[in-house]
Amino acid sequence: MAQLAIRFRWTWLGAVVVNNDYGQLAIQIFQEEIRGKEMCMEFIETVNRETLTTDARRIALTIQAATARVILIFCWYIDAKEILLELAKRNITGRQFLASEALSTSEELLQELAIAEVANGVLGVAIQSSTIPGFEHFLRSLNPVQRPDDEFIKDFWEMEFKCSPGSTRKASLPPCSGAESLVEMEHPFTDTSKLRVAHNVYLAVYAAAHALHSLLSCPGQDSPPGKSNCSSPNHIRPIDVLQHLNRVNFSTPRGETFYFQGSDMTARYDLVNWQKTPNGPLKLVLVGRVDGFDLILNESAIQWSTGLNQVPVSVCSESCPPGTRKANRKGKALCCFDCIPCADGEISNTSGSLQCDRCPPEFWSNDGRTACVPRQLDFLSFNETLGVALTAVAVSGAVVTTAVFVVFLHYRHTPMVRANNSELSFLLLLSLKLCFLCSLVFIGRPSVWSCRFQQAAFGISFVLCVSCILVKTLVVLAVFRSAQPDCKATMKWFGPSQQRGSVGLFTSIQIVICGTWLSVSPPKPERDLGFQGSKVTLECGMASVVGFSLVLGYIGLLACTCLLLAFLARKLPDNFNEAKLITFSMLIFCAVWVAFVPAYVSSPGKYVVAVEIFAILASSYGLLFCIFAPKCFIILLRPTEKNTKKHLMSRNKA
To answer: Using CA atoms, how far apart are residues 577 and 581, in angstroms rounded to an integer?
Structure first.
């Protein structure tokens, strides 16, 4: 019965057992057989003969309320009949009963029309049926004339043939003619096609005969005098018979081998099914057999209680599909669980998985969480929205810078352009344009050369830009310093050649830093597997954080120096506001790059590149607008009022 439950995946069961050794031992052995098979008992109800009616009502209510659809029955057919009648009274159908041999072949239950609907489809284990060679001939040859002392045959004759055999007749019955015979008679008494208990009695008698034969056969003929192993028929001890029974091994006339395994014989059972008939009563149909540990079953011949060809389902929780795992419900049996979807990056590819398996680093779970698929390469490309937006902003910055360059070139002879050191202004505009354009190198699929070029272009462009601003600041300070009588010689250190040399010197230092970094431990394309997602980020990995830090640190040093000097020059006359413009621009520049560091460290995947591009563009736009927007306004919109030497040379009266 346990094998049947396991075979049909009935994991949620109920049981009705008679309250004696038969029922208690049966359910105990059943539970031992299913232990470790992820099967559970929802209920175990006991029935007592003394309180059968009350117990039947209680059991019927339990079965009605239970979710288990397969019910084991370990009780006698009398008890089972009362329970089935109670179920029929309450119209509780659709339960699949698995019956023990104590009731599975009961003709009384099969003929009871009241329980036909409830008991339809019962699958039972029955004592093996077999024929006994010569037994039918023996039964049909019985006659009271040959056995005058056999009261059973005499009563059978009187009941079936309505006559009285022998000399002592009943007055109410006529004498038998002697022609009465069982040879052609069809009667359950003469039907030997399905002998069950009788066949076991037959085997038991043969086993005892073989044991006695072995006991009395004197196997020790060569034993010394006085120590013979022969037993006398008059002095047979039960213990001696038992010892020889343990060694019995013979074949029946049908070729079946019989022997004992310990105290039990080899398990041989029939599997029977109760099926409906057109007339109403149920019929017994053989659907399989059990031979030792082998279960042979013809599933297509089974008529289930549901009336369908499909095997009934009896589970507390449906098996978890692939892509999920089982999670036990608190306080419930192990068979009752919830199905939890696997987390991202985890899969389960079998039903009923207890846990989800994590995918290898370069793989990720598919949408159904049933298989690991290669993670897609991801990088900031020109085709996506973010890449397009950053490209547009960078190109726009380069275009605006070019436009400012053209304006300054066209008005290069005006006082505003000349007073603001036109040569450094043109060099600053050129470096700003390079800053805007170098951000485009960060977009697209990283390669060996792009990884090297992007950081070098970024570092050198910004140092060139900040160097120009720093030199412009120094020139501004020198100009106003030279206005004092004792400092007229100061300007000889800040002539055009000195300015160009200073910018070249500051930029050369960055070139040396970048060259050393790129030759010793350059950035190279790497797959970032740390960010758990369906995509693998392809990025330029910093093989040397020190090199990148030196590049940023040098830019920061120049920017801070420039900010400090511009701040010191903030009180210069308002009409000449170059120092104030530089102060505002460097404040924005420093703020952007201070905010860049934590954003760069915490950004995932390709957004690291986007953060760096944003910092480049934001700081470049800050420098461009803070320094050149006011000048372009004066050059283009207020040329006659403020773009004059007189206005620029005058001091603020305030």
So the answer is: 6
